[in-house]
Amino acid sequence: MIGEIIAIGDELTSGRILNSTSYFAASQLFGAGHEIIAMSTIGDTAEGIGISLKRALDRSDFVIVTGGLGATSDDLTNEAVAEALGRPVTFYPELFETICTGFPQDDLSGGTGTLGQPGGLLPLSRPQLEKLAWLPEGAIILKPGARMAGYMLVHNERPIFFLPGVPYEMKELLVDRVIPFLDARTDKKARHVSQKVYKVFGLPEIEINRVMKRLEGQDARIRIGYYPVFPEVHVSLSVFGETRAENGMLFKQYDLEIMAILSHHVYGVDDESLETVLAALLRKRKLRVAVAESCTGGLVSHKFTKVPGSSEYFMGGVVAYNNELKERLLGVSVDTLSQFGAVSGPVAQAMARGALALIPADYALSVTGIAGPDGGSREKPVGTVYIGLATRFETRDFLYRFSGNRWQVQALSTFTALELLRRKLLGLPLVD
Amino acid sequence: MIGEIIAIGDELTSGRILNSTSYFAASQLFGAGHEIIAMSTIGDTAEGIGISLKRALDRSDFVIVTGGLGATSDDLTNEAVAEALGRPVTFYPELFETICTGFPQDDLSGGTGTLGQPGGLLPLSRPQLEKLAWLPEGAIILKPGARMAGYMLVHNERPIFFLPGVPYEMKELLVDRVIPFLDARTDKKARHVSQKVYKVFGLPEIEINRVMKRLEGQDARIRIGYYPVFPEVHVSLSVFGETRAENGMLFKQYDLEIMAILSHHVYGVDDESLETVLAALLRKRKLRVAVAESCTGGLVSHKFTKVPGSSEYFMGGVVAYNNELKERLLGVSVDTLSQFGAVSGPVAQAMARGALALIPADYALSVTGIAGPDGGSREKPVGTVYIGLATRFETRDFLYRFSGNRWQVQALSTFTALELLRRKLLGLPLVD
């Protein structure tokens, strides 16, 4: 089915907030075989909401509207919809009851949901609570009994989903309610869509484009996309076959071709990230890792610990930002530091060895470099980074010259360190 | 002036890429006093691009179009614009010359710009290079001589800016070319806009809403917005006066009121982040900080080192993910660990003291907790986090029970640790 997403909020059109919910919705809907022809973002005005909604209904099979369902005065979606579609707001007593149910008292985090804040320390006023229970006529509550806003209207046979702007609530309703509903309505003869995403680090987009060229345009049922997601490039394969069997066959054929071309540059697929791929490798082989970082300042360690259960293989790290710490904690000798400088291969090696001596692990990664904007020199410009990799048997260092601002150099260094370890674990070439 | 932003790309409508450039543009334009009435995102189809552009021209004073200017086959913007506005594509010889100029050879990072990849290892093919130099008739190159796409058309007296989808190129052209051009055209009598953003951590949005209520609706020239940006809430004050003087007066009055209400919960304003505010405080007082973290896995250290020049005050950190490391590196005693458990106040205190003993610093922060999803118990559920703060004279620990997923608990813990240090440095209450 063809759909449209409308996000509402002055916080979006004034650039105060990055609209990540539309992105999430588009990605989920695409994966479920629907096509999004447009995503729009408009401010908190009843008129604008009405116009956008009516236009979307003219050209789409379904519409998703996010935001503007909350209790504060600038939440106008319900009134706007009532006006635009001629469906006066109506009081929903069961919804009101759900809203008034006592909130748990265990959250001091400051997170706020659409039906009142989970913290419950500071309940909404009575008129605020009531506002939440007035919905356009015909509204079907998406999760009755749940403490979040969200409803559906079927207007001129087209479903319109009104979801909260609060990301976690919106995502939950989209996945649990919207997509199953659309699936159930989708014409069984509709084309099938299969998609796979190949995640590549270390090859520029244009080179990927070049090597993949011969696969493009061979078959109208195949679409290949290239999406730089700094510092990675994601390649997507979408197959639009007439039948499930045709899809399966085409998919298999192109999947093999792509893997033959991109080969070990693909570190993972679909939802995998470099850190989850590493996590699986380290777990399977019961290997443990330690980290010693300077210019990345803890980002390499943090990448490891983003994965649930990482304590199994990530032992710990040292952020030796200061030279004294490199000496005292990691045992980098004063001589090495003064002879080669803190940003050097010998120091990277000594840091990795030092981490391995300090922390019980099988592998150690180290990073020392100049993230900028200051600190560069003619021989070692900003972006000069040495990465060390130590095992119990050998230590190596690798020199990189990255481009970009401070954050980009930190991100590139971190990804490169993780990729080095992945390649080491898989016996792949460490340098291309 | 009233403007509209159109972002082009199948990678956006299929949810492969989060559209962050429209967000950046909206925020910059709002700050410069313009109003964005709509932001739309459409796929790579010439027809869709044409329709959106014409509709935007009907209702806006200016339009910004991003994406689709590159060398690959799915980059259709120029052809679509030529067709929609009746301006046939024309060859731009100077642009072609710029494009053909040798690329530097110093970048292995995989980043790709619109006029070919900076790395230059794998130059574009001749037809790809040529494609970049064919623009709609009347196009004015925004940065002649620069190796990036981007041009302007003035159509029916309305400027349309075509910017690359590559974020850093788009941002550069927006700030250096688009905003100055719009400023120069803006009617001097147009209303003035002043905006200030107050950044709050630790107060839920609904509570902020409640305490601020009396300031709302007092004056039509004032607008107050509340934007949760997990884990913070940003409060914006916008003043729309008739004259600069009126604006200044209103702004001052409301600014004082807001600061009186939100008080020390405001850690900073506008572009400040918690880490840049801390950086300024630590620098000014010549104080140095050390970190010992467990469940945040390096994120606290990384926050400090995101700031350029952080080596002045951030000495280093230990990521003691493993208990053995807490003992060996930080000197937490086996007794303390076994008596109270790794997630406890005494261990948080011992970690902070250990960091201070190990790393030459004036303050040490420590974090130990259960980020989840596993590892929780009845007494210490997921989200239980102890933060330690040590100076040369005293050590304290603070217990928090955060809600959320692993990432949210890590982020809340990190922000809370930084906020504790900010309050300590400013002599503010450490607990509300």
Provide a count of the helices of chain A.
15
Q: Describe the oligomeric state of these chains in a short phrase.
A: homodimer
Strand residue percentage of chain A: 15-25%
- The count of domains of chain A is 3
Task: Report the CATH superfamily of the largest domain in chain A.
Answer: MoaB/Mog-like domain
- At CATH level 2, the architecture of the largest domain in chain A is 3-Layer(aba) Sandwich
* Range of helix content of chain A: 25-40%
Strand order of the largest sheet of chain A: 2-1-3-8-7-6
Radius of gyration of chain A: 27 Å
Annotation, overall tally of beta strands of chain A: 17
What summary fits the major beta sheet of chain A?
6 strands, mixed
Which secondary-structure class do the elements of chain A indicate?
Answer: alpha/beta
Amino- and carboxy-terminal Cα gap of chain A: 44 Å
Largest interface: A-B, 123 and 122 residues
Shape annotation of chain A = globular
Poorly predicted runs of chain A are 102-113, 116-123
Mean pLDDT of chain A: 88
CATH level-1 class of the largest domain in chain A: Alpha Beta
Q: Kindly identify the CATH topology of the largest domain in chain A.
A: Molybdenum Cofactor Biosythetic Enzyme, Chain A
